[in-house]
Amino acid sequence: MLSRDDVKRLLVWNPLGALAFGLIAGYFTGDFRYSFAAGLCAIYMVEALMALLQRFLEPRIQELPRLRKVLIEIGASFLSHFVGIFVGLTLTALLFGYFSIALIFYLLPWALVAPAFHSVQYARMFYRELRETELQEERLKALAAEAELKALKAQINPHFLFNTLNTIAHLTRTDPPRAERTVEKLADIFRYALFSMEKDSVPLQEELGFIQDYLELERERFGDRLQVNLSIARDTHSISVPPLILQPLVENALQHGQGLRGEVELELATSLSDDFLEIAIKDHGPGMQTIVAKQPGRGIGLRNVRERLERTYGEQYGLEIGPNEPRGTKVVISIPRGQR
């Protein structure tokens, strides 16, 4: 099925090209009728050969590498023009009974210029397809990175739901008003976790508010055994941080920083330097070496946090884990200061 552009090329542009050739060649050869007929035959023979090549060659080279495909198409264009012009001149010679050597010199540039023009078109098409492929690959990589970050977020959402529900079940029998407040606090926590999944960053003040709500729920379980000390620098409140980045670290400290009687002394501090924000989470438990030796499977939450930080800010920023003084574990997050 011919398109509108194909019909226009066959019925308008090809005859006009043959007419232009006939006028120019006829002026030098003295035979306008023969020159026009030769141009018309050559142009339509080239057109027919190009159509045949496109019909039979294109399906067979679709799976080739892009560069090789373009080179084959350029070679086919040159071949079609040379063969088409030769066949067109032969038909014209049979029709008029003689052959004009002069026409060969006038048609020869057409056999070179037109394929060269097609070569430029193929080169542009090759570059455009290559650029589109690169952009598509970049988009796919960006989507993959985004999906991976969302997956990491999903893996570090609060894991304390069952413990909290057990606490609520107990409070409904012993202290119903307190159970109601606990349910409301749990709803606030999961509302923040749900909506922050769609954000790349939140102000540190919002993330700290979420952590305080989380610790209030944990205090229902630990009671007086949980002691929390906050040392938040006022100039760090507006710094942007990845959402849900602190909860896995606080959860690790609660789970693995307990003393002999199950008590947890937790400290959360922030500081701001010329280059970066530091967030430190400290506990006074048995320390990292003891924990790792007893629980070799530990560390998924820490690893996910480290990967999120490195993917967001680069490998120079991330997570540092070391001993706390006089005992316990200290985890420090570093975030570029410019992230506001």
Low-confidence segments, given as residue ranges, are 154-158, 290-298
Overall 3D geometry?
rod-shaped
Order of helical and strand elements? HHHHHHHEHEEHEEHHEE
Helix segment tally = 11
CATH architecture annotation name of the largest domain: 2-Layer Sandwich
Q: What is the end-to-end distance?
A: 59 Å
Structurally, how many domains make up the residues? Answer: 2
> What fraction of the residues are assigned to beta strands by DSSP?
5-15%
Query: Main sheet, how many strands, which sense, barrel?
Result: 5 strands, mixed
Structural category = alpha+beta
CATH first level of the largest domain: which class? Alpha Beta
What would you note in describing this structure?
This protein is α+β, with helices and mostly antiparallel strands and 340 residues long. The chain folds into 2 domains: 4-141, no CATH class; 156-336, Histidine kinase-like ATPase, C-terminal domain (Heat Shock Protein 90, 2-Layer Sandwich). Helix content is 66%, strand content 12%. The protein contains 11 helices and 7 strands. The protein has helices at residues 4-29, 32-56, 58-61, 66-96, 101-155, 161-174, 176-196, 204-222, 247-256, 288-294, 300-313, and strands at residues 202-203, 226-231, 240-241, 264-272, 276-283, 319-323, 329-336. The strands form 2 sheets. It has a 5-stranded mixed beta sheet with strand order 2-4-5-7-6. Strands 1-3 form a two-stranded antiparallel sheet. β6 (319-323) and β7 (329-336) form a beta hairpin. The longest helix is centred in the middle third of the chain and has 55 residues, at 101-155. It is rod-shaped. Mean pLDDT is 76; it is low at 154-158 and 290-298.
